[in-house]
Amino acid sequence: MAAFREAERALLQRWPETRLDPSLDRIAALCDLLGQPQRAYPVVHLTGTNGKTSTARMVDNLLRGLGLRTGRFTSPHLESVTERICVDGWPLTRPRFAEVYAEVAPYAEIVDRSGGHPVSFFELVTAMGFAAFADAPVDAAVIEVGMGGTWDSTNVADASVAIVTPIGVDHSRYLGDSVGDIAEEKAGIFKKGTFAILAQQPVEAAEVLLRRTAEVGATVAREGFEFWVAGRTPGVGGQIVSLQGLEATYEDIFIPLYGAHQAHNAACALAAVEAFAGGKGLEGGLDIAVVSEAFAQVTSPARLEIVRRSPTVVLDAAHNPHGARALVEAVQETFSFSPLVGVVGAMEDKDVAGVLDALEPIMATIVCTQNSTSRAMPAEDLAEVARGIFGGDRVEVATRLDDALDVAVAIAERTDTDALGLGGGGVLVTGSVITAGEARHLLGGGLS
Questions:
Q1: CATH annotation of 303-442
Q2: Where are the beta strands (DSSP E) in 294-360?
Q3: Topology adopted by domain 2-296
Q4: Is the pLDDT of residue 311 over 80?
């Protein structure tokens, strides 16, 4: 534990993830010193605005269903930095995380001394993931970008298959103010020989992505054309979907996640693994039993995750208007809360008004709070924005997240829940990944 705490402390002293210098020089130099670990296995690379982590977890499950040993790199984490680097579906243990840090850090210090800027937190953790996967060794790595694509440190890996989940406006300070600008950055993960899997996109984004695939000679498959969601039925505990893949149709697949957006994530994940398997000489579609079992075992913490009953408390990491709208549609389809009380903590650099405007129709009351990070919007500032959208009588303020949860639960408890815990009063915690993660920790890490 002491070694892990020291590694965590040293990482946090580096440039934070939100401080960017658009260059691959440092991560490339670090990977050179490490012996190019990112080239030791084929890569499924994911970018997009929303849905990356859920889709990555689905791809990981499907690949393991094929008998492959996998690495999975995602960000940000909910409760522990170890979540970012998984082997065979499990986060590195704290001792192993500390070991990998100790192996990689001396090389990062060499790079620190060689240039004008030190290796950042995210660059070092990315290199740790690459190294851990090579050392395992894994048969395939599922790698989620941190932000954007072209200049993201994960882009020193060349994808066999690249997935672009739906693009909306987020991180506009760094990526641009339009979906076209953002798509330009995200399209940078397409390389010569890549098989590109494109989720349904706004027209402006689709045009950019398709132009890039043509420029680099990538193969492309588009949701709605080469693959699609053929049907879905919401149900208790998730949904039943039928998916048309690149090679076959897969009927009556249970996914224990809520919302139409998760069905679309599943379609992209399935197409990506079909493309990956085809590249390995396994054409003809995947075994339906493998697909069914892999999807039935998918989890995606803090993505409409129920973590408490009586009253029901649901966590979701939505942090931009695009994600908030998908969240609202899923809540309206799945639950019948009356009232639904929101606990919202957001980051100052986000489109907070856009998120709140999307959430307003489903929340009877909003409790404005803040998470523990320096980027958090102060609760009172958030409440000021909320009053302009919800009206003053529907807005409560509790600076501490634990107090905000208590306030929201007390309001929700005034209405008895139904037998399934899906009606009556409910609490929805959202607004940022960190807020959802801290609430998950406070509430005991969920039901599963």
A1: 3.90.190.20
A2: 303-308, 312-316, 336-344
A3: UDP-N-acetylmuramoyl-L-alanine:D-glutamate ligase (3.40.1190)
A4: yes
